[in-house]
Every structure is written in C-alpha cells, then in structure tokens.
Amino acid sequence: MTDFSKNSSVLSFYVNGTQPSRAAGSEEEVKEHIVMPYSRNNRFLAKDVSVSIPSGALYDTLFFKYRRSPGSQGMLSDVHHIHDIYTPLHKSYTLTIRPQRIPEGLESKMLIVQNGTNNRKIPVTGRWVDGSVTAELVSFGDFYIGADTTPPLITPVGISQGADLSGRELMRFRITDNFSGIGSWEPVIDGRWALFEYDQKNNQLIYRFDPERLSKGSKHTLALKVSDNTNNVNILNLDFKW
After folding, report:
1. Contact at 8 Å (CB) between 114 and 124?
2. Is 104 found in the same domain as 86?
3. pLDDT band at 27 (very low <50, low <70, confident <90, very high)
4. How far apart are CA 208 and CA 220, in angstroms?
5. In degrees rounded to 5, what are phi and psi of residue 202?
C-alpha cells in the first residue's frame, strides 16, 4: 500500500483454502459476497443461469449473493435466488435460465416466473434462445422456468351469436389470460382488418361501428384472434347484424 507521499508498505502472506462441507444429498448452491462495482458492467455465471448487470444499473457497489435450490412440481428448472428483492435497480439487467427438462413442443410456451410475496407467481416476458429463456428484469428475487399452455379467454359483453346490433355505437369483448398475459389481438370483420381499442384497465376490446367500412342493415361476420405472450391462441367467430 502507498500513501500520497509515496511511503509504501508490503505484507506477504499465504492463504490455505478448503472446500466447504455439504450435507449429503443437498443440491443447493450458494455463492455470496461477489463484488460488483456500480460503475462497470458485471456478469455472474453458475450452473444453468447467467446474470448480466450493465454499468449504471446499480446505485452502489454490490456484494452480490446467489443461491440455487431444487424446484418443486410444475417447475422446469431449479429456483435461482438472485440477490434479494430489497436492492433497487436504476435500469434493467438480463437474466438467462436454462430449463432442466424441455417437454416436447413446449419451447415456445416457456417463460421465466418470479416468486413474489405471498407465493404470488409473476410471469416475465422473455425469449427462447439456444435452449434457454432470456428476459430483461428491473428487480432481483427468486426465479424459475415455467410453462403456459392455456389460451386466452374471449367473452362477448352483452352480445350473443347472431345478435341484432342495429342502433348500437359499439361492441365490447372481455379478453383475459390466466398467466403470461395478453400478447396480441387480430380482429377481422367480413374478411377485412378492423380497428379495435384495447382498454387494458378493464381487459376489454372495443369496436366502434364505422358506416364507411360496414354496410348498415346487413349481416356481418367477426373473427377475433387473441394470443398470449407464450403464443397460445383463441379465436372467436361471431355473426351479427348492424
């Protein structure tokens, strides 16, 4: 060590390392006190997981902690405990998790799931790349790989098959998804794309009748296709008069 006046001291010493003991049968992996300076890019790698934190994402130098524990039924990977939920982030970081098993045909249905408070399961939109799921996150926490195979639900609001909607200004449809969330919608009326508004607060798609695109006093056919964020699709076909 050297001070500002160029006075220096040197201390030489040896360190003997030993492997920490592990309980028989335990699959838990713990890595902690990994120093991550806030002013540079940081990366952490372990079995089936990687964490990339860009420069400026941390507010201060981080003593990073990581732990892995076995997943339970329905999980497709171990649970990866990425630091703790109490450390704030200024911008997102990248988390990549490799599943331990890949059910046939479910690659596009996989997503990262965060274990929230009160055992709440929070889906994280990601992408499938080279056998792993990668996502951008703005918080640390506990994460694993799950799958969503249930398509969204489409419910007409006050409309039935073959309904006469003459005199109405609009029609509504409630769209909900049980897990990964609504990804996209594609409404077609009489074979032509139609403009629907998405009221996200009330989970509704709204169509305002346009006399320039629809012939009044005629029968029409709607095909409404709704997809979630893991490419599960539901299609509603509805005939109506307007």
Report:
1. yes
2. yes
3. low
4. 14
5. -105, 10
Shared domain for 112 and 216, answered yes or no, is no
Residue 167 belongs to a domain with what CATH number? Answer: 2.60.40.3780
> How far is it between the farthest Cα atoms of the chain?
95
CB 154 within 8 A of CB 173: yes
Contact of 83 with 106, CB cutoff 8 Å: no
Assigned token pair, 130:
């080279």
The answer to whether residue 92 is domain-embedded is yes
For residue 110, give the nearest of 154, 74, 141 by alpha carbon.
74
Phi, psi torsion values for 200, nearest 5 degrees = -65, -35
Closest CA to 147 of 76, 229, 235: 76
Per residue in 128-154, pLDDT (tens digit) is 888 899 999 999 999 999 999 999 999
